Amino acid sequence: MNISNLLKIALRAIAANKMRSFLTALGIIIGIASVITMLAVGQGTKNSIQSNISEMGSNMIMISPGADMRGGVRQDASSMETLKLTDYQALKDECHFIKAISPPRPEFRPVYLRQQQYAVEYLRCQPRLPGDSSAVRRRG
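Predicted structure:
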């Protein structure tokens, strides 16, 4: 059989079964559209996560103490042990891939706005970590 005969047979089959042909075409169109949509959503999520990570600094991670759980019950925040300077020193000594470490020191300072004083907590650390060229000091 040549191509023209095959094409005639296919067109007759499509004409004889119009509803089946329509539903098949609709299924193919919906399937292709859903695959394209899922790829676009995945790519957008990937770009969003990468931009959020790059805003933090290309090689920076912050570690903070988690919630203390004993017997399935969350303990009071005042009873939690926080990270101590010895913990930071152990991280620096035992993890060879860490170039620099800067333990944050939370402090409360007064801030004045329109003749009112507010106590603001801020984290103090080294002015600039070595190797972090994306850290920008902001005013505010």
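Summary: The chain has three helices and four strands.
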